[in-house]
Amino acid sequence: MAAMAVALRGLGGRFRWRTQAVVGGVRGAARAGQRDYDLLVVGGGSGGLACAKEAAQLGRKVAVVDYVEPSPQGTRWGLGGTCVNVGCIPKKLMHQAALLGGLIQDAPNYGWEVAQPVPHDWRKMAEAVQNHVKSLNWGHRVQLQDRKVKYFNIKASFVDEHTVCGVAKGGKEILLSADHIIIATGGRPRYPTHIEGALEYGITSDDIFWLKESPGKTWHPTDVALECAGFLTGIGLDTTIMMRSIPLRGFDQQMSSMVIEHMASHGTRFLRGCAPSRVRRLPVGQLQVTWEDRTTGKEDTGTFDTVLWAIGRVPDTRSLNLEKAGVDTSPDTQKILVDSREATSVPHIYAVGDVVEGRPELTPTAIMAGRLLVQRLFGGSSDLMDYDNVPTTVFTPLEYGCVGLSEEEAVARHGQEHVEVYHAHYKPLEFTVAGRDASQCYVKMVCLREPPQLVLGLHFLGPNAGEVTQGFALGIKCGASYAQVMRTVGIHPTCSEEVVKLRISKRSGLDPTVTGC
Amino acid sequence: MERSPPQSPGPGKAGDAPNRRSGHVRGARVLSPPGRRARLSSPGPSRSSEAREELRSRLLGLIERSRVVIFSKSYCPHSTRVKELFSSLGVECNVLELDQVDDGARVQEVLSEITNQKTVPNIFVNKVHVGGCDQTFQAYQSGLLQKLLQEDSAYDYDLIIIGGGSGGLSCAKEAAILGKKVMVLDFVVPSPQGTSWGLGGTCVNVGCIPKKLMHQAALLGQALCDSRKFGWEYNQQVRHNWETMTKAIQNHISSLNWGYRLSLREKAVAYVNSYGEFVEHHKIKATNKKGQETYYTAAQFVIATGERPRYLGIQGDKEYCITSDDLFSLPYCPGKTLVVGASYVALECAGFLAGFGLDVTVMVRSILLRGFDQEMAEKVGSYMEQHGVKFLRKFIPVMVQQLEKGSPGKLKVLAKSTEGTETIEGVYNTVLLAIGRDSCTRKIGLEKIGVKINEKSGKIPVNDVEQTNVPYVYAVGDILEDKPELTPVAIQSGKLLARRLFGASLEKCDYINVPTTVFTPLEYGCCGLSEEKAIEVYKKENLEIYHTLFWPLEWTVAGRENNTCYAKIICNKFDRDRVIGFHILGPNAGEVTQGFAAAMKCGLTKQLLDDTIGIHPTCGEVFTTLEITKSSGLDITQKGCG
To answer: Which one of B177, B267, B594 makes the best mutation probe of the A interface by having the most chain A beta carbons within 10 Å?
Structure first.
């Protein structure tokens, strides 16, 4: 059984934070002008690499240190951080695999004579995805080399406010000093360590993309990552999601519930209002999960091949010895506190990306923040990062793209009577011949009610939501009004034209179903 | 000279102003300025737009309620001539002397917004804007003026629309919503091959809808290939069944036809499946399939007859060739196909046919996708070529012969070079002509009522409120001269036209920066100017062009080629790097382009692109990280992944 292997590997996994050898007597060893580097970047993910490359381009002497602590299940990966290795890239590729499964089912309606059902081979997909990721790892190495950025595969911790000590795989230590230091260590999945068996038998998104064998029947206790469950269902696996409360916290709640509705109608099982209490290995090798139904108080169990925890992420700050440098973190989240210039409590130490308190945990945000930071440091720029109106897309089976305010947030900020929401249920043209259900294809635009009705937020649920949302994000950035969007001529026949055809307001109570052409 | 009794200046009442000279015309009444009251009661500058709005609605109210309104200036000899004309006809007019009222200048301004005419006299008869002095006299000589002067109620309908396509239907529905009595005439003249279809026009029946669905079918063929790389396992050779696909698509179209019928009925629009042609002013003849004729009259007309594919005019073309009118409902697989033309229709059809595994050749007289950015057009073509579509450049067919009958049969095509004397011969199962389209404007009696068309193109010139030279006749859609031939444009302009005619709206259709997408195998989306056009308008040295090749994430694992998808923006250096042209070649180009088009409406600049955060990983995000300018000559090929 496929998933047995997964769990067995887990038995041997270790999860321990490496205790740091604190090197004494080096404090003050490097003075300004004598330091090794102009810029030292700790963490080789999207944000860190962007900083390093930008600084090198501006002629600075730069080093990047990156080290991937193996997951409790022993998964490790190369340079590039979460996005490339265990985030956006493998996720979108596996999402694409699942979408292709849907297209194979559509194909007979369009005249392609494919015998159904078509089975899916996890190993083949995983290998292809992993090969691509490895080529990206290599690409990042080459890019650093091309730009003469020094790269160290070492685990770093602060010695003092200008010096970092790195421990290589073999245990060898080196000291690196720099005038400016950027912390971009990102975050890692959280484990519910209070649940018996969670660590031993469960996996996280750090592992799923690197599994050699299909995870089989999976079970996700999650309130954030629906994407994994979506593609697992899409490639034909029996998938169950356990949610304690609401899905996609922070996103528009109407949209979120429609995402769930769509997933549920396409075979993902949901256990709502439940909390897991323990995970056990059965003699046959499968995992038995016990949970409590919060509403009835009753206990229930289920048997699965894989348990995937997706309950949030913790910043990778604990091993950095931040106190040695005097960098402040939030006591609640352990994330690093920065000002609008990304500077920490120590003026020449900065932080970008997921490790920073109160920032959106998104690759392009980290990249842009990093580049702007370096341009301010070395390029004479004074441009600050604008964290408003950051567009994003959730790659659930039916994609959800959004930019700007959710309806709840808009109402909270401006008051119900000042907000006008235009919405439409539409049917993508391609769904018609394929005979697909379009009940959850929906778009809504949240505007101010007073003319010219400034657009506050756009929410789009449907195929290619990411592609649709990107351009409108610019529109919102340009201060688009409802009237301006309506004056834009549609591109026919696309899904995105539904956005420029939004005429029905929620307030009117009229039926928002788009009919005809 | 005489004066009408004083009346209150409230809305709807046209009274004269005391101590002012009255009009020169017998029976004419001089009006008080409709905007005056609003101005007195709302002096603050913050309320000026409100006051203007009120002035506008008063003017519209006046036009709505008066049989004849003349906006005049007392010293203007042309105004005097017009006043005298109406006087001689014994018609009482409302005359507003703009030089004698306080708000004259503002009235004139608002009038020019409503009518697009800045000068006086400005004449309305029974709500129809006739124009100035010359137009009024022309209308008088042609008998139109006398027609207009007849009461509205004499007409069967407020509005008759000829043509039930995207533009006509949107106009009809909007007018009906605004409470007007509306008729739509729609009649599909069968193609030379005998194909005809239902209500909804080109887009629904023989255009965008079936085209995109067949494009989708071809994309699914590609997806099936990709899917093996993504772990889906099947070994059989997958074949495509034309009949299954066509039947499914035609079923969808039938449901749309039905939906249109239903929505017209719901809105109480009279729908007549007859061929409409003008016989005299305000009157058309409707001829049905059986040849029965019926006559209808209306106060106003909208022509929305659209276009039909053009034939070559060579031996055998109408007998043996098909066009896009026939392809989408062809009962059999077209087999080995020659596509003649390089319009977007030609390339799209060639693209999906090749996607089904058919042997496809495109015969091109000169350039690909005329009017589109030529760099992009060439890239579209070379992608197709790499994916099995053959191109025969600089050839035109001179004769088509049938070798064998059948479904499909066998046709021999003789073609000659456009540059020399060389001729070539080829045998195909199907020859699809896609060399352009002709406006359906020459057989609808336009000459009977004097509606001008461009004799060469057959297109109808209109002003910026879609009005033809005959004031009560309007036109929308593909038949308009110098306007984009796109469904959403027709829908928008039809709807806005109805709102202006019957809903006191002023909003005009904005034909600037209309986005569009060509659904070739690699889709091409664009908005704004092509590089050629931009250079022509702004000069090369004033432009900065940013561009990049890119590799969609989904293509990597699928093993599809790198350095094929391409993004380009054209910026005006002297207008804060404003984006004046947007071009993308890649998957889902239509979905990507739409939002950027909205952003261009709001004054998109390069800086704003740079400031916007990308959505990762998508294709659209490339526009937020464009760095390389064309003028730098730097390499834009992607090595590995950024």
So the answer is: B594
